[in-house]
Amino acid sequence: MKFTVLKQSKKSSARAGLLETAHGVIETPVFMPVGTLGTVKALTPELVAEQGAQIILSNTYHLFLRPGADLIARAGGLHKFMHWDKPILTDSGGFQVFSLAKLRQISQDGVEFRSPFDGGAKHKFTPELVVDIQRQLGSDIMMPLDVCSSHTAAKKKIAADLRLTLDWEKRALDHFTSAERNHQVQALFGIVQGGLHEDLRRESAEYLRALDFAGYAIGGVSVGEPAEDLYRVAQYTAALLPPDKPRYLMGVGLPQNLLQCVPFGIDMFDAVLPTRLARHNTFFAPDGPENILNAKYAADLTPLVESCDCYACRNFSRAYIRHLAQAKEILAIVLMTIHNIRYLVNLMRDLRRKILNDEI
Amino acid sequence: MKFTVLKQSKKSSARAGLLETAHGVIETPVFMPVGTLGTVKALTPELVAEQGAQIILSNTYHLFLRPGADLIARAGGLHKFMHWDKPILTDSGGFQVFSLAKLRQISQDGVEFRSPFDGGAKHKFTPELVVDIQRQLGSDIMMPLDVCSSHTAAKKKIAADLRLTLDWEKRALDHFTSAERNHQVQALFGIVQGGLHEDLRRESAEYLRALDFAGYAIGGVSVGEPAEDLYRVAQYTAALLPPDKPRYLMGVGLPQNLLQCVPFGIDMFDAVLPTRLARHNTFFAPDGPENILNAKYAADLTPLVESCDCYACRNFSRAYIRHLAQAKEILAIVLMTIHNIRYLVNLMRDLRRKILNDEI
User: Which has the closest alpha carbon to B155: B191, B107, B193, B195?
Assistant: First the structure.
C-alpha cells in the first residue's frame, strides 16, 4: 500500500492524497460506505460503484460469525464472495464485541464472547486471530483488535483499556509482519484510542507512531459524545499522527462531520448512517436530512435534491419515492441509499477540489 | 396496437407473434412481471429491463388508492412517474376490489368499496371510471372492470356475475371508443369470465368477440382451483377466442403453467409469484422452486442455477445469497427477484424458439 499526499492545503491541515492498494487507487479524502455483512445494504455492487464509491468497509466480527471466514476464504476472499473488485477495509470487530456481543470477558490475551447465533457458542478474539481472520477475508486494509471503552467511563478505566489496546496492537503488528508474507498486498492500520482525554490520545499516538503502521485510525469517537468533543479529539489527535500516512476517523460520516473534519487533515471516513437513514426514509439535502414521508412531498414532482446528479434524482420525483416509502417498497430504500451515498461522494469530491485550490 | 401472428405451430395451438404498442414491440408469448404499485418489487426499472422483461403489469386499484391517478397524470403518466419506457398493462382493479377491499357493495352501475387507508373512505368503481383512471395512468393496455366470482360459488351466481361483467365490459368499450380519442395509443382488452363452466365461458367469449376488443383475457383462473381445472378452462377458452387477437391468461406464471398453457395458444401471462417467491427466499430451478435457506446451500459456491445467464447467477454463489437471506439483507431479495424474472424470460424465449421450429 502506498500513500501520497498530493497537496497540503495552505488554509488548513486538509490534504488531498492518493492511496494505492492492490484493488485500485483511492483519491482522498474519501468516504467509505459500510457493507457490514459483505453487502452495502440494498445495493448491487455495481450500483455502489456507480455512485463513485472507491472503497467500502466490511466487518470482521459479523463475517466471522456468519457465514464464517473459512467459507469466504474458500470462495476466494471477500472481494470475490461479494463481487466487489475495488478496495475493502475490514474493521477488527473490537467495537462490535464490546457493543453487541453478549457475556464478553476480557483478559490480557484477548476477549471471549458469546455468539448471538448458534445457541450462544463461545468464541475468543485475540489480536493474532483477528489478523488471521482478516487475512482470510483478504481485505486491503485491516484493523487491529482494540478495547472500546465507553467515553463516559472513569479516566483510570479508559487508560487501562488503552494500555491493553496498545499491547494488542503491537501483537497484531508483530503477527502481521512475521506470519504475513502478504503485506505488500494487505495493510494494517493502528487505532488511536484514549477517549476524550488529550493526554491519553497523545500517549496512544506516540506509541503507535513508533510502530510504523501503514495508516492510523482515530477510534472511540462517534459513540454518543457531543459534537464539540468529537471535533476537539479528532483535531487534536490528527495533528499527532505522521503526515505521510493516511488518517482514518472511524464511524464518522454525516455531511456536517465531513465538512468539519476534513480540514483537520483526516483522509478517510466511514459511517453506517447514510445507508441506515435511507432505510428510515431519510435523504440528505443541503439543509440537513429530510424525511420523505413528510406530507409536503406528497405531490412534489421535483427530485430529492434539485442539484444532485445521482440516479434517483435524475429519474424519480419526491412524490414517487414518497409513494414507494409509504407502501414500504424496497425500491424506496434502494433509491435513497443511492442518493445518500452519492451525496457524500459528491461532497468529498468537492472538498478535494477545494483542497487542491487552497479554498479550505 | 397491432398484433401479428408470425407463426402458428404445426404441433399445437401455440403461436409466436409480435404485439406492437406505443411503447415498443413485444415478442409473444410473453411473461409480464408484476409491478402492482408502480414498481416491480425490489428492482430498479433498468434491472427489470436488463432481465429481458418486455412489458410489465401494474394495478389500477392500488394506484388509484395510493398515490392517486391525478398525481400520476400530473407526473406525465405512469411510464414517466415510475421511469419505465416500455409497455405497461394495467389491471382493472376488479379482482382487487373483490378480493382485498372491505365492505364492497355491488350494483348494476358499479361497485362501492372502502379504502384500507384514509379511515376507510368510500369509493365507487364504474366501468367508465376505471377506463378514465387507466387513461390517466396512460397504460398501453387497459383492462375493463369485471366481477370476480369465487370459483366455488353456485353456477347460478357465477352466471349472474358473468352477465353483469359482460354488461360492464360493453360499457367500458363504449366509453373507451366514444370518449377516448387516444385509442390508437391505448388499447382495451376484454376479459372472459364464467368460472370453471364451459358453457358460461363460451357465452362470455362469444359475446366479447362480437364487441371487437383489441385483445382477450381469460380471467377468473389461478384463484385456488386445481391445476387440471386451470388447464381445462384455459385450453377450452383459448380455442374460442379470435386467432388474430392476443390472448392473455391472467395471474398465471409458474414455469410449469407456462409450459402447459403456451401450447393452448396463450400469448401473454402475468403473475406476482416470481417476485413474491424471491421475497420468500425461493428461486426457480429446473426441478422446481428451491429455498435458498436450505442448509445444503450453506457452503455451496455454485450459482443458483448453473445454466442460468442472469446477473445473480453470473456473479454470486448460493452460499453468498444464502448468507444474505439468513441476515435478511435486501440484496438477497434483489438477486432472487432478478433470477426468477430472468428464468421466466428465458423460458418464454425458449418456447418461442420452439414454436418457430414447430417443436411444441
Answer: B195
